[in-house]
Amino acid sequence: MYTQQVHALLERGVVVPRPEAVEIAPEVRPERLAPGVVLHTGCKLAGAATSIGPGCELGAETPMTVVSCQLGRGVALKGGYAEGATFLDGANVGSGAHIRPGTLLEEEANGAHTVGLKQTILLPYVTLGSLINFCDVLMAGGSDRKNHSEVGSSYIHFNYTPHQDKATASLLGDVPRGVLLNQPAIFLGGQGGLVGPSRIGFGCVVPAGVVWRGDAPAEGLLLAPEAKPAGRPGAFQCGAYKSVARIVRNNLLYIGNLRALDQWYRHARRPLMKSDAWSLACGEGALLRLRECLEERCKRLGELAGRMPRALELARQQGQGAAPWLAEQERLQRQWPALEAALKQPPADELGAEERARVVAALLQQADGSFVKAVRALPDAARRDGTAWLQKIVEQTTQLWTS
Question: How far is CA 216 from CA 116, 194, 212, 225, 401, in A?
Answer without folding.
Answer: 25, 12, 10, 11, 21
